[in-house]
């Protein structure tokens, strides 16, 4: 075995290829032993940077200034589209009074982003595609067995018909074979597409890993993330096998009565990759939810609550005060609405800043560092309830000034991105009146609205397509009309909505199937609700002005 190519061998000098490495040229990126250091720097080139081998790749390689060729660009000009500049450029008249940022800061930020991207590809995106690929391969592997069962069933039916039915049976087998080819083609097509995307992902990962190890400033800063491009996973393909339905024998209706082959059915199941949500363990519902604590807020009528963090909540009621309490019930902060009128809905953004909807001024406002900032200003519409999504978007339910229409609008910052108002048949998704429409986002990115006037929970997917409606669960004891107000979702994709007049909370799965009630915690007219990161539930009692903390998951 050649010791120089052994996996157990130590690093060796790139010049003599014999001696053990001692140093490293950070500029040329070569390994050097002690004797070869002199040879390496003897060319008179003044850019060599010799460092101990353990500190290799620690020196940044700055781009040369195009104007001042003897200087390196260690800054970027923020006022000139972040172009690279050197110290002489900074002092020039061209860049007078401009703002500059050190390249090292941008480089470090980009390196952090690259590291996150690599982890996202390795831990989420690539495994997700691997799972889809494995599923398609399993479907292909089980294809022959499934079709063999079909042809066997047909053969048994054919034996009963003897010669008269043989021709028809053979014809139907031919049809099955043709469908099988189509079936295989569909699966193979999708598998090929997935394999192609996987290949692109691997290429992207290789590029990222190369950039991650590189000290080249330009390529690092010019790096553009492809996370969003690959994050929208293709739908899972489920092609249903055709079925054979035997019928009684009748010579006059031979072909039609032998049986029926259902057409090939290709179903796609929405497959969403959640990048900004942590992977959580499976939690089951408690047999009996537990009341942990009751917090008194001082409101005569309390309608909304949202979690600031694990220790604090924001609340608002039918006053112009928005109050922040800790979980022991101590008042931490009070904010008054800018208009002096009660707020409609509240939520907290990813930075911990309070957002509230003011129907009077038609605005959504942000409270930050004691200052009120108008984030969104509407015309012809008034905001109702708010929800900050896992991606940082803001969902706002709103109603028209004439109180005949309602809709959900998605914003990125102050920019409108999406409007959700009608189904595929052009019919309104939500009731037109101005009654409350609390809103939340489920972990699969479904948009869930509790429509009080309609007596329904209305759920659409991320694209605004109606998935399902829930209009209550039959119950002997819950006999008053279902009028949902508050709504939230937990880490298990359960949807929880309050049923005030029946003094309970409905828990649904992500497909709208009823799971159970929470009706044992002495709830009276529950209204707004939210869950924290530990799946603790906080519920407003409208007329008592209390917030109850409830444990409902194991």
Written description of the protein model:
The protein has 554 residues and is an alpha+beta fold. 25% of the residues lie in helices and 31% in strands. The protein is built from seven helices and 32 strands. The protein has helices spanning 34-41, 87-90, 103-141, 143-213, 217-221, 227-231, 254-258; strands at residues 23-25, 30-32, 50-52, 75-77, 83-85, 100-102, 236-240, 265-269, 285-296, 302-307, 312-317, 321-326, 331-336, 346-348, 354-358, 363-368, 371-377, 381-388, 394-400, 406-412, 415-420, 437-441, 447-451, 456-460, 466-470, 484-489, 495-499, 504-508, 514-518, 526-531, 536-541, 546-553. The strands form nine sheets. Strands 9-32-31-30 form a four-stranded antiparallel β-sheet, with no helix packed on it. The chain has a four-stranded antiparallel β-sheet with strand order 10-11-12-13, with no helix packed on it. A four-stranded antiparallel β-sheet has the order 14-15-16-17, with no helix packed on it. It starts with 22 loop residues before the first strand and ends with a strand. Mean pLDDT is 86; it is low at 1-8.
